[in-house]
Amino acid sequence: MEYKPDEIEKAAREKWAKEDIYKVTNDSSLPKYYVLDMFPYPSGAGLHVGHPLGYIASDIFSRFKRLKGFNVLHPMGWDAFGLPAEQYAIQTGQHPTITTEQNLARYRSQMDMLGFSYDWSREIKTSDPKFYRWTQWIFLKLFGSWYNNKTQKAEPIETLISQFEKLGTTEIDAAYGEEMTFSADEWKSFSEKKKSDVLFNYRLAYLSEAWVNWCPALGTVLANDEVKDGVSERGGYPVERKLMPQWSLRITAYSDRLLNDLDTIDWSESIKEAQRNWIGRSEGCSLQFTINNPDSYREQFTITVFTTRPDTVFGVTFITLAPENELVNKITPASHKAQVEEYVNIAKNKTERERQAEKKVSGIFTGAYAIHPFTGNKIPIWVGEYVLAGYGTGAVMGVPAHDSRDHAFAKHFGLDIKQVIEIPESLATARNEAVLPDNKIASQSLAMTEPYDGKNGKCINSDFLNGLDVKDAIKRAIEEIEKRGLGKGKINFRLRDAAFGRQRYWGEPIPIYYKDGIPTPLDESELPLVLPEVDKFQPTETGEPPLARATTWKYKGQYNYEYTTMPGWAGSSWYYLRYEDPKNDKEFTSKDAINYWQNVDLYIGGAEHATGHLLYFRFWTKFLNDYGLIPFTEPAKKLVNQGMIQGVSAYITRINTEIFVLSGSILRTLFTIPIIYITKEVADKIVTDEGMQNELVDFLNNCFRKFNPRMAAFVRDQDYSIKIDARGRNWFNTRPFPIQEISANNDIEKEKIIEWINNYDRIENTQIVFFPEDNKPYVFNREVEKMSKSKWNVVTPDDVVAQYGADTMRMYEMFLGPLELSKPWSTQGISGVYNFLKKFWRMFFSSQWSVASSQSEEFYVSGEKATPAELKILHKTIKKIDEDIERLSFNTAVSAFMICLNELYDLKCNKREILEPLLICLSSFAPFVAEELWTKLGHTSSVVKAKFPKFEESYLVENTFSYPVSFNGKTRFMLELPLNLSKEQIEKEVLSSEDAKKWLKEAPIKKVIVVPNKIVNIVV
After folding, report:
1. 45, 961 in Cβ contact below 8 A?
2. Can you tell me the distance from the alpha carbon of 245 to that of 209, in angstroms, rounded to the nearest whole number?
């Protein structure tokens, strides 16, 4: 019987759907195991072969855990809110719900095609009001909370109000935006609006003026990780920095916990390190510099900096403010205002990522000075884009001798550089510095070469710090700063509060309305606040978010709702909990469900979410734990980042259509020549002038004569510069070509290229020719890169499954290499996996082992007892597969199956005692073929409900030895004999064997040499 994947897989899908085989219950006596894939956003293009890599891995592991006796929760849902659907809606006028539902259907069909064992009864989507009702509910909890540093947890805002009413800000230790001081009486005298504003300084969900990444084309604020090189990651639209009212979540309150708890989870060290760097904990102190107050200033200003190196305070020679710092405008005198404003407008519109990556030094002097708090010297105040408004205080003290960025700034603008830390002698020697006998560095040697930012050495030129080691000097400096009331020791974090509001339509409405100008939360009973219908999905003509178009959408018919919506990560920050109890309309998840399923045991997804989703994911978990809503503080115990399956792109090379030729001193341009396609090999030879330039010049002349018959050729050898034209443009460019069209030899007939160009890449009013003109196929240049429609290198799972079947694709993606590594997609090895499955199939259909084909055979599995050799192969494989799956080493498991099959084939084994447990092992990888063969073995229940075979170590204990039997020193055959035989018994067994009789014939035996467990040699 022939192996037909399409028929087998269709039957299995129907069976699983009919029996609802993957549905799990919360009420189980079995131990639980929770396997989760990162929330996919369903695009219209559907899945390509790279997307299912993590899904296949999680599915194999989920199936394996079921076989091992666990109640496995393996759900799937959709991150359905997002910009792509909204952008499509803006372009077409079609409601995002329509395209989202179409995309979901496409993804679902592909996932079913691949046999993923998801419990679809638990399916959720973030755009469903039944789901986002609870996202809004969590937001209200955040809005109604403050963070108590004393208890290290979130608490209801009412407890903070109660303290304000009794003691004002006295004894309050809270996470806040800015330091506030007021008495109980002052609090009571505040208006309702003033109280609201004060509370926003402490709420975990708050509204404030903030610098944001504003994308006009998308009409929304973007997070830092959504902006790259000054444009939006989605669509590549320009992004500018803008000060505007912005909803934010005070994730910074959890900085210490987010950092410390990384040590408690089994996540990759690279992800942990990325989060540590993003959180960026640093210890230091605040320090105030008073502005030199000229008569023109109406009030006294101070600049507060945060520094981790107060030991270098005597080396401060300037101060730099961030362009956004509000002090810039206040302290800049009229004489410098125009130039400063011009610089600020340019600098502040760059994203923080751009400013951090910028290597070019830029800045401008404000014209103002500060007073050094210890020396009394005047220090110039500058503005520089390398200082960020959101980190620290938006101001830095410049210590150019001991900080690389300060040093570059000072050298660029000619500012003073004062060394205050002695460079260690060993480093000075390594730098070839001149070290004086008293261990003092030669004058200006450090300042004029490079900064020393190490924390070894002693303080010099530093008054009361002189002679102290750096570590002791840091403590001593902080003591003196606090003693003089200039600042205080503190811990600072690089992590910024998370921008939460989005000026877009397709997202969760924020459940806030405005009464008398005061943001007021909806009551929980009024949730969900559902998205209203709008006539357009763009911002209004006056720049308000799209929800402002819903003019009748008002709370109780009179108060405006909040017009911004939540970001895409809102729903994905807690979705794992909803899977545990998705139909509950009374609670976000029931206590019983949470207590049973707990947190995720294995989470699989891309490493690109290291500092975005995964931080918010952890933050929301800790917040919910603070209120006792969940009994754990981390959402996922183990995290694995799958690698990327990359596409293999094919590129076609062509000569630019504008060819510039230098005729004498005049630049001439050939406009009306055809597009000329050449192979990269030929292009390289032309560039290096390997005998091809003259040939190309003649070819161009002929082309020019042919397409410009009334003009003489003017391309001449001596005028032709081939590498790069006089305007600095490259001669050659490349275009991607569909990889599927290319042969295994990496070439294609030129007529096929012309046909494709005419259909997909046509440039009007041009001819298509090839150089050189010959009949050889065109050879392509290939490149391994990300799969993308624009690269024409996308391979869909539909095509692979149609040709080889879903089981083959599942096993092949695992066979490509370790799960965590990226690897290029290639179908060169896929036939090997396909042949393995066909061969495995034949094991169950071949009673005549000499028959190579299974075309006419019927199902046949022997009931004979397995031999020790067969049992050894089986249990060796059971052990290997068990260990490999637990280690997520799926590629080595696939190899183990192949080795096992070959060994069993050599033994002509088709015994049920061997094949049935082997089939169970394989079912996690190839569930379709396993289901079909399991049914044919006579089982009425699904293989999904089988038990993973138990490994018996006794079968691997060696109790026989395979003796090489030699005749006059030449080995002629091998004979398997028990280890416990005596020499006499061994000799008797060997001489009585048929192989020995064949080689002996009638020859007389002179001697038999037996070495137990080594050799047998017969001398004739």
Report:
1. no
2. 4
Strand 960-967 with 1015-1019, pairing? parallel
- Tokens standing for residue 138: 């969590």
Q: Residue 439 above 50 pLDDT? A: no
Q: What is the pLDDT of residues 802-860, one digit of tens each?
A: 999 999 999 999 999 999 998 888 777 899 999 999 999 999 987 555 444 444 568 88
Q: Residue 408 burial (CB < 10 Å; 0-12/13-18/19+)?
A: middle
| Rounded Cα–Cα distance for residues 439 and 433 (Å) | 11
Integer Cα distance of 786 and 648 in angstroms: 8
Mean pLDDT in residue range 935-962: 91
Residues 6+ apart with CB under 8 A from 480: 464
Q: Are 404 and 421 in contact (CB under 8 A)?
A: no
In sequence order, what are the beta bridge partners of 266?
A: 638
Q: Could you report the per-residue pLDDT of 198-244, keeping only the tens digit for each?
A: 999 999 999 988 777 778 777 677 766 677 767 787 778 888 877 77
Give Cβ neighbours of residue 958 (< 8 Å, ≥ 6 apart): 979
What is d(CA 167, CA 151) in angstroms, rounded to the nearest whole number? 18
* Residue listed under structure tokens 């730098």: 431
The enclosing H or E element of 213 equals strand 205-215
Which residues 6+ apart lie within 8 Å of 165 measured at CB?
184, 187, 188
Q: Which two tokens stand for residue 317?
A: 């020679």
CB atoms under 10 Å from CB of 526, counted, come to: 13
Residue 492 has pLDDT above 50, yes or no: yes
- CA nearest 28: which of 68, 61, 67, 72? 72
The alpha carbons of the chain give a radius of gyration, in whole angstroms, of 37
Question: Is the four-CA dihedral 64, 65, 68, 72 of positive or negative sign?
Answer: negative
CA 930 vs CA 12, 56, 808: distances in Å: 9, 16, 12
Q: How far is residue 789's CA from residue 785's CA, in Å, rounded to a whole number?
A: 12
Distance CA 969, CA 515 (A): 103
Q: What angle do CA 561, 567, 568 make, to 5 degrees?
A: 135
Residues 961, 976 contacting (CB under 8 angstroms): yes
Per-residue pLDDT band for 686 (boundaries 50, 70, 90) equals confident
Beta-strand pair 220-222/205-215: antiparallel
Smallest Cα–Cα separation from 77: which of 576, 609, 635, 639? 576
| Stretch 135-144: mean pLDDT | 98
